[in-house]
Amino acid sequence: MTHENRWKLAAVGRTALLVAFSTSAYSQEDPSANENAPDITMKAYRMRMDGKVDEAKLALEQELSKNPRNAAAWCELARLEFQRNGKTHELDSAQKAIEQAVNLAPDNARYHRWAGRIAVYNGILKVHRKNRPEMVKQFKKATSAAEQAVTLDPDDHEARMLLVSLYGNNPPELGGDQGRATHHVETLERRSPIDGAVARCEFSMKNEPEKKLALWNDLAKKFGKDPRVHENLARQHAWGGNVKNATIHTNNVLTLDPTRSHILLDLARAFGLKKQLEPAERFARRYLALDPPGPVSHRAWTHMALGQIQQMNGNNEASAESLEMAKRLDPYCWFTMTPPPEQLFIAPEFD
Question: 270 CB contacts (<8 Å, ≥6 apart)?
């Protein structure tokens, strides 16, 4: 695949990915805060954060062979298999694992939410393989799972935003339903102005960048201390090519909440896709310079993105070194211009 193609996303499902893995709808957690988490699941999660994906997989499989009713371990295995998709290019194994978790704990909204996320991504993989019937099946699975999540937990804003995308950005034959999309947007707006704005931007304003920017500027007047507002302003300015304002709001994000460093990856990607290579490289290098560093998988992806930027600049030797570093750091590195979703790197949640 050429560097040009790696900077492109498939048109079908593009917005579904953006909303399904939006960072607005959740707060990032310190893994050490989960002191009462089941040992094996947290152990596997921490191994995965350290780049020991194969060891984590083995630990989870051994646990599940002894305790097949451990729903939390099945969910963590699903997340691990999702991450491995960077190399395996399949999500059926992740889907099987999350279905086990759902079957064991059908009243757990989080497991249904993950089932929805995985089905969206799996559907998009089927698009690439020209398997339209399976794509339709996966999108319907995603919708059903996300609807169940919000039924069980009306405050599950991530699942609701996924529904906005599935209903609002797909034709009727893929389950699109403008009325249902509007219902979920309006519900989000009542429950959370910020999450509602994310949904509104990806639905009725998706092709109106000036309206999006105006919406976030208005929210900044009332919620200027919320890093999520500045994240979205940074993204809007980046997609508009405004390096200065994107940088200002990124700095605001990291001042208000240093853990939200994923914004640096978002901007490296946005400027790269716009062929503004100098700021793209600068934001990538800022991520690699973080102390403490981000997850191994994200660092590997950043080296990969940097390699693509260097190749586009004609610096083939530096590009080869960056791409080799990506493979060395993470054999499961995502060689796409969308980084692994941030939710994969949030500590497991437990009831």
Answer: 235, 238, 239, 246, 280
pLDDT at 57: 98
pLDDT, position 306: 96
Residue for token pair 């099987």: 96
Q: Is residue 148 part of a domain?
A: no
Q: Scanning the structure block, which residue is given the tokens 């995965």?
A: 48
What's the pLDDT score for residue 202?
Answer: 87
Q: How many folded domains does the chain comprise? A: 1
Q: Return the structure tokens found at 301.
A: 């992806």
> 186-195, pLDDT tens digit by residue?
999 999 999 9
Instruction: Residue 289: give the domain boundaries.
Output: 261-351
The owner of tokens 């940088």 is: 247
Q: Is residue 191 part of a domain?
A: no
Q: Is 258 helix (H, G, I), strand (E, B) or coil?
A: coil
- The closest alpha carbon to 120, from 87, 144, 84, belongs to 144
Positions of E strands within the chain? none
* CA-to-CA dists, residue 287 to 60, 255, 282, 305, angstroms: 30, 15, 9, 11
Q: Tell whether the torsion through CA atoms of 69, 156, 82 and 265 is positive or negative.
A: negative
CB 99 within 8 A of CB 115: yes
The pLDDT of residue 336? 86
302 assigned to some structural domain: yes
In a domain, 241, yes or no: no
- C-alpha span between 181 and 185 (Å, rounded): 6
Q: Which residue bears the tokens 């996303």?
A: 9
User: Quick one: which of 124, 45, 88 has its CA closest to 335?
Assistant: 88
**Of the ranges 23-27, 192-196, 294-298, which one carries the lowest mean pLDDT score?**
23-27
Residue 279's CATH number = 1.25.40.10
Q: How far apart are CA 303 and CA 329, in angstroms?
A: 9
What is the residue-averaged pLDDT of the chain? 89
How many CA within 13 A on the CB side of residue 320? 2
In this predicted model, what pLDDT tens digit does every residue of 95-138 receive, in sequence order? Answer: 999 999 999 999 999 999 999 999 999 999 988 778 889 999 99
- Quickly tell me which residue has 């979205």 as its tokens: 232
Report the pLDDT averaged over residues 200-206: 89
